[in-house]
Amino acid sequence: MKILVLNGPNMNLLGIRQPEIYGKATYSDLLDLIRAKADELGAEVSFFQSNHEGALVDAIQQAYFDEVDGIIINPAAYTHTSVALLDAVKAVGIPTVEVHVSDPDSREDFRHISYIRAACIATIRGHGLGGYLEALELLCIR
Fold first, then answer.
1. How far, in Å, CA of 44 to CA of 27, rounded?
2. Choosing from 27, 64, 78, 100, which is the catalytic residue?
3. Cβ-based neighbours of 39, under 8 Å, separated by 6 or more
4. pTM of structure
5. Which residues contact 13 (CB under 8 A, 6 or more apart)?
6. SS3 readout for the chain
7. How far apart are CA 34 and CA 46, in angstroms?
8. What is the distance between the alpha carbons of residues 15 and 37, in angstroms, rounded to a whole number?
9. Active site residue 100
């Protein structure tokens, strides 16, 4: 099972940005957690993070050609603005799970809208970094 983990804007600043919301674990810590869980599940995992919407769209499209079996995506701020990410996930038809470290529904009103959710098989929010592990398990048991 090949899984691509995509992270959007500012996720590379985990541990630095708003630790009261996102925690003190770093982006590197997140990747280590996911790698360990992937090893446990026998999955091959790759990672991509960008602050640029088009680069994330390119990564989703490339996942199709790389024959990726599942995508875990935290679009971050693009969750609430990007029809392009929604269209890319729809276009490739790869099972995708939306993940958010915090619970956007408990934050500002504009964060309650997720464009990408319509193309995802599940959304996991507010479970901290563990949400990524839940998403990985979900994709691996399908």
1. 19
2. 100
3. none
4. 0.92
5. 27
6. CEEEEEECCCHHHCCCCCHHHHCCCCHHHHHHHHHHHHHHHCCEEEEEECCCHHHHHHHHHHHHHCCCCEEEEECHHHHHCCHHHHHHHHHHCCCEEEEECCCHHHCCHHHHCCCHHHHCCEEEECCCCHHHHHHHHHHHHC
7. 10
8. 21
9. yes
Model pLDDT, residue 112: 76
Q: Is pLDDT at 103 greater than 90 in this prediction?
A: no
Q: Which residue has the tokens 């999955």?
A: 43
> Which tens digits make up the pLDDT trace of 36-94?
999 999 999 999 999 999 999 999 999 999 999 999 999 999 998 999 999 999 999 99
Active site residue 132: no
Task: Give just the sign of the alpha carbon dihedral 8, 123, 126, 107.
Answer: positive
Q: Which of 22, 78, 115, 132 is catalytic?
A: 22
